[in-house]
Amino acid sequence: MKYIRSILFNLFYFIWTFCLSFIGCLTAPLPRKAIMGIAKFWSVTTMKAMEVLIGLKYRVEGIENLPENSAFIIASKHQSAFETIAYHAIFPHPVFVLKKELLWLPLFGWNLLLTGCIPIDRSSGMKAMRSILEGTQKRLKEGYPVVIFPEGTRTAPGTTVKYNPGVGLLYEQCDVPVIPVVLNSGEFWKRKAFVKQPGTITVKILPQMPKGLPKREFINRLQSEIENAYKTLKH
Questions:
Q1: Which of 107, 188, 216, 222 sits between 20 and 30 A of 52, alpha carbons compared?
Q2: What is the DSSP string of 98-114?
Q3: What is the pLDDT of residues 14-30, one digit of tens each?
């Protein structure tokens, strides 16, 4: 039964994403908030389909920790494709730092570009760091929250990797609140797994990181905060 329900969800997901991506491309001449509105609609409807077809829900804790009147950086744990969809419904018009290869996807990649995403070439070293910083500063100035995944890629539940220095650079140079976010999506929507499991994903928004820390101390503390919070989630 789980296999059949996953087939139905995946069919819906790919067809729905294709349709809305086509519509999204038509918003190219319009202000960015037009495509952002479509992205939020895509997110909300996809999450509802996930609940109905798979029996997979999600809950958000700590929403009160988000700044109300300023741009901010979301430093999030990354376990599955779930967060790249759901965050459009959870956060106000988020812009993602993402690998440039995603922009090559027909229609969908073009929509990512229209949202103002910050693409990076992960093989280009310091050039990638400069690209992240410049892109993030620009989007923050425009008032958009920026999502970065410090792990650099999706990691399996229970796996810990060294956090990338890019998040430390943003903390040091951007002077905006950095909000850690932890979740357990990988326990239900595993990386590259066709079958999704029913249950409830928890997305927990932690209090913002203190300002003024040395970069290395910030990265270590961020990792500690996120990984320790992950252990407290219901599994």
A1: 107
A2: EEGGGGGSTTHHHHHHH
A3: 999 999 999 999 998 99
